[in-house]
Amino acid sequence: MLSKPILCLAIAVIFxxxxxxxxxxxxxxxxxxxxxxxxxxxFPLNYQRNxxxxxxxxxxTSNTSPVNCIIDVPAIGQxxxxxxxxxxxAFVELPHDLQTFGDTTITxxxxxxxxxxxxxxxxxxxxxxxxxxxxxxxxxVPTVDLNIIQYKYFELGMVLGAxxxxxxxxxxxxxxxxxxxxxxxxxxxxIIDGVNIDLVAGTEYSYNIGQLQTFYxxxxxxxxxxxxxxxxxxSLFSGHGCxxxxxxxxxxxxxxxxxLPTAMWGTxxxxxxxxxxxxxxxxxxxxxNDITEVNFYCNDVEESHTINxxxxxxxxxxxxxxxxxxxxxxxxVVEYARSRxxxxxxxxxxxxxxxxxxxxxxxxVSGYQTDLRYIHSVxxxxxxxYFNATMMYFNSGGNSISLDTYQWVPIQANGINEAYYTxxxxxxxxxxxxxxxxxxxxxxxxxxxxxxxxHGGYGHAGSLEVRVDDQQEHQSVSGDPHFSIPLPSNExxxxxxxxxxxxxxxxxxxxxxxxxxxxxxxxxxxxxxTWIGKLAVILPSGEDxxxxxxxxxxxHKVEIQNKGEFxxxxxxxxxxxxxxxxxxxxxxxxxxxxxxRVVYSKQAAIFDVTFHSQHLDIDWVVQEKLMENSHxxxxxxxxxxxxxxxxxxxxxxxxxxxxxxxxDYKW
Length: 667
Description:
The chain has 1 helix and 50 strands. By secondary structure, the protein is mainly β. It is globular, with a radius of gyration of 26 Å. The two termini are about 40 Å apart.
């Protein structure tokens, strides 16, 4: 579950030759409680105004204890209340007029959902009640204050509807006095405060929206790439009133997804063919930043692209094509079923690997008279390092099914199995759960439902929340190389270090573990920054047989004493020594680069080493006992009461026990 991200306090450390350092649901009576999570939601128009579409919310939990939910809808003056448990999901039908449409851009149609538990899933649904030929659903994402100066969002969607029904963009404010700057990709004529206004494509406009206020824009052409920057978090809903994919085929269908701020995007995705399709499908990859390098490995055939901020790659894939996608910067990926057999199109936001966990709770669409006429299928994707089908289960309707009898297909990149996937078809209507008995395992799901009789289609992801242990990946640090250290205050201390080639220094030193580093020459002629070329992890034994692990960036190798040398991308798991309780294992690529995790159970220490093209990064995940009595450039700050001001330039004079190295290692 997503918790409050840690503030990254960036500090620069500069070495000189002399070793000196300097550091820079409806009821009238409202029940109240302290909300653990909040959602700010909305519904763009499904199909057309008099089509009889009914928006609704589906709330579910795996918690056996009651979970209380309050849903406020100020636009109609009503509050809905629901109490749910694992055996009882809640369906809350909302008024048709709560959909947002028309030429008036700023209205007050936001929906506020509060719950008193983290163990909750909220799904937005919008179906035509007696004729579900236009239907859509989205996985709601809880509002999180990321403690960043600005939030950046991009509209995503698909417009191939012959101009009859529009692409739509809906922003819902989560806080009062939110400044929003928007740059559209299409010109829009709209009404703001009773005044007709022409908004020019490519021009930035600034508006102020309040809590539960909505900002709505529609256009007959594609709005994908429209940029929204806010000073506070908002909720963005993207999609289409009724899209035809492609424009020359089939009927239209309503499509909607809640998008994510770019700080919650990812760099590794796995694309799987949509179940039951007998034709091609589409994906779009959208970039958050300039010079974003995207590598596709579809059926293990590499294809590379470079795109800039707001630009996207559109690909049509065959019914048997699956892909691994890696990028050097954050991207967003959307998958679309097309307008052809067995039904109308559907749109699903694809989870990045940072959204994976060991347990996924979700549900088919539910609550409508037509929902039993759908055939629902679940895609399960698990990272290769955790693939063990005998440890994976599917729960639905009180029945638990092992997934070891299902056919699993590997997804490869450069000949390496990175993930596996399977389909669970014809599942019952209602709540389901997919889980792995290994609590560290990482998997996710995507759900698709199609109706042959009604020509309807929908889909949504299993989870789009960032794992706690991956939040550090969204911290911004100026300069390279950099280190991040979680402080007892739940803040993050981040280093940027400069030095000179050949400098050896100590990062961690205590009685149980020593980590030394070696600088190499700058790998970028435009900067004077130095980089870490080698890391040595030494486990002192008190004798001459210390256990040593060497990470070498030059040839991407890991040398383990008495175990030989291994390519970083080929390591699976090596238990070095039962006495030392240390394990080295390969991880899923981070931003396209091999990552190795070191687990030292004796000291409750877990850290990751990422192999870039020519240098290394080290990031701590857990370092409980290791925090005690540690020295060295990183160790000296562990388990210390440190207060820093991220605005001011700070000088820290701890003595920097980084030079000389502890247990001098001859590189």
